[in-house]
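ok trying this again, last paste got cut off
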Amino acid sequence: MNTTKTKICSSCDSAFSCGDISVENKCWCNDYPPIFNLSDGGDCLCPDCFKEACIDKIDAYIETMTPQKALQNKALSLPKTEKLIEDVDFYIENGNYVFTTWFHLKRGNCCGNNCRHCPY
């Protein structure tokens, strides 16, 4: 059964595919953390706008983070996603993967490796 739909982004008005023809009720957006909803009257966002909205929401949350808050952060209670997303979970610098604060918050503890973005 083909579950792919063509939608129009409620932010930039571009057309994009929603859904995945290989897995019913699965969409590319399911790889992103479920950190906000579009119940404010908006509809789906295209992949670029969705990624930007996630990054903005995560950045606003991280600005409130302290080492004490990190131990009981919201990211720990979210469903785990299998896919790491560039600019959300990591970025590449000089050919090296650099994990973001969000990635560390999802992990839930300090690994002791003196990571650049460790919130603990």
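PB: full thing came through this time. The CA atoms of residues 34 and 51 lie 12 Å apart.
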